From TrEMBL:
Example GO molecular function: UDP-N-acetylmuramoylalanine-D-glutamate ligase activity
Pathway recorded for this protein: Cell wall biogenesis; peptidoglycan biosynthesis
Keywords, sorted A to Z: ATP-binding, Cell cycle, Cell division, Cell shape, Cell wall biogenesis/degradation, Cytoplasm, Ligase, Nucleotide-binding, Peptidoglycan synthesis
Binding residues annotated for ATP, in chain numbering: 108-114
Family classification: Belongs to the MurCDEF family.
Name recorded for this polypeptide: UDP-N-acetylmuramoylalanine--D-glutamate ligase
Gene: murD
Amino acid sequence: MRLVVLGGGESGVGTAILGKKKGYDVLVSDFGKIKENYKEVLTINGIAWEDEKHTEELILNADVVMKSPGIPEKAPIVKKLIEKGIPVISEIEFAIQFTDATTIGITGSNGKTTTTLLTYHLLKQGGLNVGLAGNIGKSFAWQVAENKHDIYVLELSSFQLDGIINYKPHIAILTNISPDHLDRYNYDYSLYINSKFRITKNQTEADYLIYDNEDEAILNWLKNNKIKANKVPFSLTGKPEKDGGYIEENNINSTIKNELFTMPINELALEGKHNIKNAMAATAVAQLLNIRKQTIRESLTNFQGVEHRLEKVLKIQGVQYINDSKATNVNSVFYALDSMTTPTVWIVGGVDKGNDYDELMPLVREKVKAIVCLGVDNTKIINAFNNVVDVMVETTSMSEAVQLAQRLAEKGDSVLLSPACASFDLFENYEDRGNQFKQAVHNL
């Protein structure tokens, strides 16, 4: 069996290692450059690779192709594979056939990284042999190749879900859905919504779907489509009929199989309404896997949070600098601005993914005193907010953006990097953008 892996990053190299171990004839092909450390791993493992090209005669003879999530369906080589009827799948789909581990799949437009890390933290503290993979940490396929864990918590993007055929998580979490990556879905929001719901398409009556019961897109889809999994809704405003999470008298409550877990909201390590929801989702998983209530309570109290997600960097001359580089869409920025309690200088911009800034208007009017546009093309942001804030400036470097923000901020203000856009115009990725922000703040 010939396995071709498109993309020589973490998921690609992990898939290649697992494929080789399972007796496949493997080629890794990357249209860009493969990083030196990955080239070394491939070479040591005797796996053929090429970079800065896709050699068609070496690719179009594959029995199966694993496509890295970053490669769009409309890439010429992918189109040719699909025309030839060669299956093009995701790393998750390839790896799952080689493990009996239970998986918890977590997706959503926002909050999935926090919820994934929090769920992992709860299960690990509960003494389970649990791995962390998907969009985060070490490749799932790589860990399966090393037979590491009984349970995996997987952060799954819509792109990874597009490449599944048979994969099903025992427990799925859908944190929320809001317009994102629409450039990859022909600017059709319904295609993106359907993509997210692929997480439950293979689930059975023995499985669970945990979801936000206040999310319009989720509720509409569930109204019009049947699912087999047991529904576990969570909400800040209502109480579920049976299982699910809710709030009562400033306590977070979660009922699973008639067992009630409860703890005061003010004891949660994470702040903000969206994080109460993330905590409800993670708690439901921990209850389903029989983690002790005391352990859940302690874990929710001592969780450290996620880098580049509303991360407090430094307070300088009474101004708080906050790194929210992971906010790559409008909905994430909504959460960030909603949680601000001081006048805010907002650093925004990057590669627009079809953003509609209208829903931010009330929050920007109320909380934002100045905007620093950080991107190659800021036209859309300027047109959206020109009449809403008094001061708008443009820049194409992070250090300059932070210096401008410092000049615009006064004691008692906050400077918030929450870009609402992808980072690829000026940075390698959102981590690089966040790290440059933190470095620039430390240089002030």
